[in-house]
UniProtKB/TrEMBL annotation:
The keyword Kinase does not apply. The keyword Repeat applies. It holds the Pfam family TPR_12. It comes from Cryptomonas curvata. This is Uncharacterized protein. Keywords: Repeat, TPR repeat. InterPro entries: TPR-like_helical_dom_sf, TPR_rpt.
Length: 502
């Protein structure tokens, strides 16, 4: 039975005659030993299995060494009157936030893992109340049966960022449309959807990362499993800008694969490709280029045809050459990669679109703005269709198009694209991420903040830019590294529809 089932079949019938909460019923019938002042607030989705939620709570109390008298929780189906409904939502919301503030500690229960909780408006509203009440950080709990499954999810390459990308309070649902509307209204009038999404995204990413780090410690002696987990952990580090930590994890994976598979394995070549991308972003360009050449040599010696890997290697060689300022050589690598990927995937693939974007960035750096615009506009619609309109890779591309349009004299569209890109970065990556900070000077050059949330305030920092506008503020690679995160729109002003012209 789910929590919703327990509420409808047990709690409501037993409290129907008095129309009170179950806690009040216990108190009226002299069972006060079962009640008390709550020490923890419990948040969970009502679609979850009720007994799994209870099991998780008992296990947490046991782990904390708490006896029954000390483990007193605020559990909504017991603590809230399930008959009256919410007559005055604003007043109720203030009282609810004050109650959470008094409790001071919170447990969020994920069953399974995270998906259901993140899609429920009430759960995210409870998180909003925790934020307003200063309950950060909160604890995220998994039932014992889910912990092993979650570990396997991380080990087997679970798409963490794809899961995080679905977080959006505006898209979350409640059983009652009126509740959903009221929740959205209160959030919009206070912390703002963008800020709440940013906070949830940040906290979820921290949890995923700490979980991955914990699993690595548990599996130190299992070389095969830790090899895959090193890669997934590195990708999470890359997303939050901890490049040195990502470099460390990928180096560990590289060494383990060399020992397990040998130096000629295509798996080793794939890891060299990932590691070289991080080296490039750390400014170790020559090291990155050498690793990519080694990866290509491994591929050329292999009897296995893997054009996807070859296209990735060639594309990333172009990225390093671009960072070295060798634009003609970078263009040659990108064109080769484009031909390989188009042959392998067809024209409507993310990898093909990303290579078009990289080619556009080279043309932009060379001052060939019309050619740059052609390739950027070729890539952007594919990225939007495949990744969503608010994906970080889409934001990167919009920023690049904004730079080109600025140099072509179309400042109004350029500014709007910068603003759209900044809104995505804010919600997906947070205000402290290099991409978020990097785009601010471009916005500062043209106008005041038009953002819907309170996240950005003037001044944006950094000197205003003067034309001609050069390379993007965000360092590449823009393309084939795993995309950082996706956001569901709306996130501000209406998007400028492609193609973006002069």
């Amino acid at each position: 039975m789910s929590t919703a089932d327990v509420c409808s079949t047990i709690i409501k019938p037993r409290t129907a005659s008095n129309r009170i909460s179950y806690v009040e019923l216990l108190q009226r019938t002299g069972k006060t030993a079962c009640t008390g002042e709550a020490k923890w607030f419990v948040s969970h989705a009502w679609a979850c299995k009720f007994l799994s939620v209870v099991e998780t709570i008992f296990q947490k109390c046991k782990d904390e060494g708490l006896d029954d008298s000390a483990c007193i929780i605020w559990f909504d189906i017991f603590s809230v009157d399930q008959h009256s409904g919410i007559q005055h939502f604003d007043h109720w919301a203030i009282s609810f936030q004050e109650a959470i503030r008094r409790i001071g500690k919170a447990w969020i229960i994920f069953i399974p893992y995270f998906a259901v909780w993140l899609e429920r408006a009430w759960c995210l509203f409870e998180l909003y109340a925790m934020v307003e009440g200063g309950i950060i950080p909160f604890e995220i709990l998994l039932p014992p049966a889910e912990q092993d499954a979650f570990a396997q999810y991380l080990i087997n390459g679970g798409k963490v960022e794809d899961a995080i990308s679905k977080i959006d309070i505006r898209e979350a649902r409640a059983y009652k449309q009126s509740d959903q509307d009221n929740i959205n209204r209160i959030v919009a009038a206070s912390v703002g959807h963008g800020k709440l999404n940013e906070l949830v995204t940040t906290e979820m990413r921290k949890w995923f990362l700490s979980s991955a780090e914990s699993e690595l410690q548990k599996m130190l002696n299992d070389e095969k499993l830790t090899s895959e987990l090193h890669l997934n952990t590195a990708k999470m580090y890359i997303t939050i800008g901890r490049l040195s930590d990502a470099d460390t994890e990928l180096e560990k994976r590289h060494q383990k694969q060399l020992a397990l598979l040998g130096a000629e394995s295509l798996k080793v070549a794939e890891t060299k490709c990932e590691l070289a991308t991080v080296k490039c972003r750390l400014g170790q360009l020559q090291v990155a280029l050498s690793m990519l050449k080694e990866a290509r040599l491994i591929y050329e010696k292999s009897a296995v045809e893997n054009l996807e890997l070859l296209g990735n290697i060639t594309n990333r060689i172009g990225l390093v050459l671009y960072d070295q300022g060798k634009y003609d050589d970078a263009m040659q690598s990108y064109m080769e990669s484009l031909a390989i990927k188009t042959q392998w995937f067809g024209p409507h693939h993310v990898g093909v679109a990303s290579t078009h974007v990289n080619i556009g960035n080279v043309y932009q750096a060379q001052g060939e703005y019309e050619r740059a615009l052609f390739h950027l506009n070729t890539g952007l619609p594919v990225l939007i269709s495949q990744l969503g309109n608010a994906h970080v890779s889409v934001a990167d591309t919009k920023q690049s198009i904004g730079i080109v349009l600025a140099n072509l004299g179309n400042s109004s569209k350029s500014l709007q694209l910068y603003q759209e890109a900044h809104s995505i970065y804010m919600q997906a990556l947070g205000r402290e991420h290099p991409k978020t900070k990097g785009i601010a000077p471009f916005i500062h050059n043209w106008g005041p903040a038009p953002y819907v949330g309170p996240a950005v305030t003037l001044p944006y920092g950094g000197p205003a830019l003067t034309p001609p506008y050069g390379r993007p503020a965000v360092a590449p690679p823009y393309g084939l590294g795993r995309p950082a995160v996706a956001l569901a729109p709306p996130y501000g002003r209406p998007a400028v529809a492609p193609p973006y012209g002069g």
